[in-house]
Amino acid sequence: MPTREELAETVRTVISDVLGTEPDEVQERTSLAEDYGIDSLELMEIGARLERTLQLRIELTDLTLARDVGHAIDLLTTRLGGAG
Q: Does the predicted TM-score (pTM) go above 0.85?
């Protein structure tokens, strides 16, 4: 299982790929809705890429309920069994 730090790097990379930004622009406190105006299709793409990368079923509500990137990472860490 990945550590939280490894998971955070994966999440930031996937988000930046979908949004066309650099991974270091996506921080723990980044709100995808407020900072990037992300739409539901982009969110679904991020979810699908994370599912493939992590080999984990991710519910869309896990991503929509996340306040920011750090919260999403925490939710995924929990889903992966508390890694890190």
A: yes
- Domains of the chain in sequence order: 4-79 (1.10.1200.10)
Whether 62 contacts 75, CB under 8 Å: yes
Q: How far apart are CA 46 and CA 80, in angstroms?
A: 17
Cβ–Cβ < 8 Å for 76, 1: no
Alpha helices in 1-84 (DSSP H): 4-19, 32-36, 40-54, 60-64, 69-79
pLDDT in tens, the chain (84 residues): 889 999 999 999 999 999 999 999 999 999 999 999 999 899 999 999 999 999 989 887 878 888 899 999 998 998 888 544
